[in-house]
Amino acid sequence: MSVHRSAVGRRQLRIGGPVVSAGTGVPAAEEGIRADDPHQSLVRFLKRLTWLQLTCSGEGAEDIEGSVVDAARQLGGEASVLVVPDGATVTVDSHARSTTVGVRGFPEIFRMDQLASLKLLLRAVAFGEADVHEADRRLIEIIDSPPPYPWWLKLLGIVLFSVGFAPLMQATWYEVGSTAVIACLPAAMAVGATHLPRLEKVLPLAASTAVSLVTLEVFARSPADGGPVLLMLPALFYFIPGDYLSAASAELAGGYITTGAIRIVYATFLLVQLYLGVIVGLTLSGRPPRVLLDASAPANLPTWVLWGCWIPFTVGTVLAFAIPMRFLWRLLVLIYATVGVQLLITRHAGEIGGTFAAAVVLGLAATWSARHSHQPPRVLLLLPGFFALTAGSLGVRGLTALTGGYSTQGYHDLTEMVEIVTAVAIGIFLGTVLTQPSVERREGTVDQPAR
Questions:
Q1: Are the C-beta atoms of 291 and 232 separated by less than 8 Å?
Q2: pLDDT by residue (tens digit) across 329-373?
Q3: Is the pTM of the predicted complex or chain greater than 0.85?
């Protein structure tokens, strides 16, 4: 997700404004909270909890609000949360006092391992196994924990993620082979951005420029190999904000109008960065805009490769987004079920109908599974299947086709992107809603004990 798809180093907790107690009106410095002050201890824990969820998940506002409110209630207080995509305002009432604090954090999806650990912590809070001090101590350990995989495995994961997606663009050996080479460049840039903050801020633009130039100069020399954009997109798939677009649609459907609208604007900005990078690369190569027609090459991949590509795709997702390896088989089952439903329904109801049905199944399965404490969080279960259905790449294809003068194809791709994004978002939203009546608690506080 641009900056949200860039490599992330050590993140800092940013608190907007002083912590002000409504009872005294006296600012309380973060480091000055007394250990024996139960109200301020609860405030401190809920601030960190809000920040971690805000920075570790681009899924949406509803889950953050629910987890914070539930945790506050379990620890003897009440909380209300107002969430926007990059911040939140939390009001905590406990021990006859009220405190309001602002939290800033950029939403990302790179540390799924932290969300998995957080789910276990919130379950311990729900069962009364951790008081506020123990919960805060464990939360700090989660925040400070190093990534589960070294940098070179993350790089390999991004490449596998791209290679697994390549047959969806063109079912050719050339597409797969060229992607394996081209994807190394943006993968190295994403990993390197951890130590280069300036690169991190412009990573989507820089990555798409590099991919565009290398593709046009080295790999897209013959029309028989397919259109240049189709060769570029798999290598850029890691940066495409399809998940942001669908999360925004789901937020709008769920009544979070401001958050959803802001997220759509930001996702559009990321697509424009990728598009501009492609155009810059085209300019540097000296080739005319008409080469951007995304004509496909004749398919030559056997069926077993088309089905088998989801294995490296899922392994790449696990490595690239720091998902614990113990969840790999669950994710493989979910992604094959999602793709199977999509293909089956598409034969009878078209692409939009198939995508919608697959999204409903994915939402149902992920929400139902996440209610059990031994299963990972819902967003982690949704992630690979969501990417399999995502449509952000169509946005880049549409813009580049328009630039090349292919108006009909460009508008068709952009229209299809809107349709598929809406189908994915509403399908997952519907699957979640259909499962919620049997879920006792929201994600993060599963298996709550009876009272």
A1: no
A2: 989 999 899 888 888 888 888 777 888 888 888 888 888 888 776
A3: no
Which secondary-structure segment (H or E) carries 290?
A: none
Chain segment 24-78, per-residue pLDDT in tens: 333 333 444 455 688 999 999 999 999 998 887 655 566 788 889 999 999 989 9
Which two tokens mark 415? Answer: 């229209």
3-state secondary structure 194-225: CCCHHHHHCHHHHHHHHHHHHHHHHHCCCHHH
**Pick from 75, 30, 85: which is nearest to 53 by CA?**
85
Per DSSP, the chain holds a count of helices (H) and strands (E) of: 18, 5
Report helix angle 38-56 to 132-144, nearest 10: 30
Distances (CA, A) of 215 to 178, 207, 220: 9, 12, 6
Using N-to-C axis directions, what is the helix angle for 310-320 and 328-370, rounded to 10°? 70
Distance from the Cα of residue 281 to its chain's centroid: 27
- Measured CA to CA, the distance from residue 159 to residue 420 in angstroms comes to 25
Q: d(Cα 118, Cα 143) in Å, to the nearest integer? A: 9
Are the CB atoms for 404 and 289 separated by under 8 Å? yes
